[in-house]
Each structure stands twice: as C-alpha cells, then as structure tokens.
Amino acid sequence: MKFLPEGQEMPWGHVDYLLADLGFVDSVAVEGWLKGNTLSDIMQTYLERVVGETAFDWYGTQFPVLVKKLDIKGRTSLHITPDDETAEQRYDAFGKTALWYVTEVGPEARLYLGFKRPVGAEEFFRACADGSVEDLLYSVKPRVGESYLITPGLVHAAKDVTLLEIAESSELWFRLHDWGSTDREMHLEEAFDLINFDQYHRTAAPSRELLAAEDQFTVGQIHLKSPLESHAGIEETFLIYICVGGEATLKTKEDKFTIKAGELILVPAELSEFTLAPVGDAAVVLEVRMDPRADNDIVSEPVEE
C-alpha cells in the first residue's frame, strides 16, 4: 500500500507525515488493496495480517512505526523524548526512539546531539535560562546519507537540514529550550529528570547495510543494482520501503508499484513473495521492519478486578 503524505507548517519549516497512525494524523492509502482507507481503520480490521505477530503483541492495534520528512529551514527547539516505561507510567503513551536519516543539507546545517562533556543538572538549567545552552551541546555538520540514532533522554535539535525520521509511533516529546523565543510552551521542569547529562558518544550504525537494530524497529539500507526477491510473509513482520535515491518498483503476482525518492510503500506481513527492483541502473532504498523481541511489556496486561 502507498499512502498520501499529510503536511503541516512549523515555526522552523515544514513536516510531511509519510506514514502515521497517531489520531491527529491518520495516513490514507492511495494505492493498493485497501485504497481509500485510513491506516487506523486498516489496523482495526486486519491487525496481524498487516503487521505480524511481534508488532501486534507489543503495540496492539496501533501501527508501530512513524515515518515523516522534516524540512528544517530554521532551527527546531531543543527537546527530548521519554522511554517506553516512563511514557506508559506517566502519560499512558508510547515512548519514542527515532532514527534521523539525512537527505539534504543547507549551508548552515547542524545537528545538536547531547553534551560535549558531562554536565550538571544545575548548570544545564542555568544555561537554558540565560541562553548559553548551545555552548554545552555537542554539534555536528551532517552529510547526506548519514544516519543518527535519537534515544530517549538525549537532548537534540536540528538546523537547516532535511531529515527522514523513522520512529516509534509516538509524538510524545518535551521542549527544553527555544533559543530565545517565548512563543511556545516549555517543558523543562516537567522533563528534567528524564535528561541524560552524560557526554554524548555517537552510536555507530552496525554496518553500511544495517543502520539501526533497535527493539522498536530495524532499518536497513539497500543499494539496488538488480532485482531483489523477497519472502517477507515467512518472517512475520511488515516491511516499509522508503526510496531515498533514484526510483524503484515493487512487484507482486497481481500488482506493480513505483516509489520515487521521498516516497514509501508498506508491504503487509501476510504478503509472501514480491520483487524489488531499481528503475534504471540503481536506486537506494531503506527497509524498515520489526524483528522478534524477547518480552511484550509495552502493551499493558488487563488488570483483574
């Protein structure tokens, strides 16, 4: 299934939700066997046929992954996300782990990720108040094709860059600092105990082909130079293919879909066979999946009365 992006203007630029089951954003299928249905309706009706057993055990009827494009012209606020346990206990929601994949960079592009050195809580609080917080932050000039893992508790922001964000299906986050702006609500005191004050050390991708292997999602990078045969249904996971370079086709026994750079396609878990191929000489595609997990402690068990 292919879905219609839903865009929103932001103070720092523009966001396109490419695939989302969030309530306030509910992606609509525009190609495929359930064309015209929203993602939440598809999940309510087809459940494990779409996501597979692992995702259903952890996330119930909510689609477990969020994909969006962040076109950042200015600078986002400095914020953090909580982990699953804290989010469930305090807010009855999912936490958020994310992967940022860089698709374009501007002349002033920067990513702010954690701290240059271990920072004291009082020092950080003062720096947020007096506007000197940037002096404490680790920053990097990103390059196209790089990826960065955004873990719960990591303070982060971005400037003059276009990012593809692949994340747990949640928009629970806390704004810690807004670079002098007073227009938006701050959550510094509410989220203070969630901040990781240690020195930032970038988590390297497991390999050139494997960008992230987290409990919440696995992201691989495929450099397509010839057709790739897949047997997704055997593995009991949905697959999301996001084209980040060139153009690709996905062929089943009945249908053929094309994805251009910036587009994605959702392959349901029940689909047993398909072919992914480049249009022309080559294409670059990200593959998002959810691999088996040891425990299913995100979806709470019902309480017996």
Describe this structure in words.
The protein is mainly beta and 305 residues long. The protein is 13% helix and 40% strand. The chain contains six helices and 20 strands. The protein has helices at residues 39-46, 48-51, 53-59, 84-91, 121-130, 188-191, and strands at residues 2-4, 6-10, 13-19, 28-31, 65-75, 78-80, 98-115, 137-140, 147-150, 156-168, 174-177, 210-213, 218-224, 228-230, 239-245, 247-251, 256-260, 264-267, 274-278, 283-289. The strands form five sheets. Strands 2, 3, 5, 7, 8, 9 and 10 form a seven-stranded antiparallel sheet that branches. Strands 12-13-20-15-18 form a five-stranded antiparallel sheet, with no helix packed on it. Strands 14-19-16-17 form a four-stranded antiparallel sheet, with no helix packed on it. The longest helix is centred in the middle third of the chain and has 10 residues, at 121-130. The N and C termini lie far apart (41 Å). Residues 297-305 have low confidence and may be disordered.
State the separation between the terminal residues, measured CA to CA.
41 Å
Task: Report the total helices.
Answer: 6
> Mean pLDDT, nearest integer?
92
What is the structural class? mainly beta
Major sheet characteristics: 7 strands, antiparallel
Strand content: 35-45%
Q: Can you give the helix content as a percent range? A: 10-25%
Order of helices and strands: EEEEHHHEEHEHEEEEHEEEEEEEEE
For this entry, give a set of tags.
five-stranded antiparallel sheet; seven-stranded antiparallel sheet; disordered C terminus; mainly beta; 305 residues; 40% strand
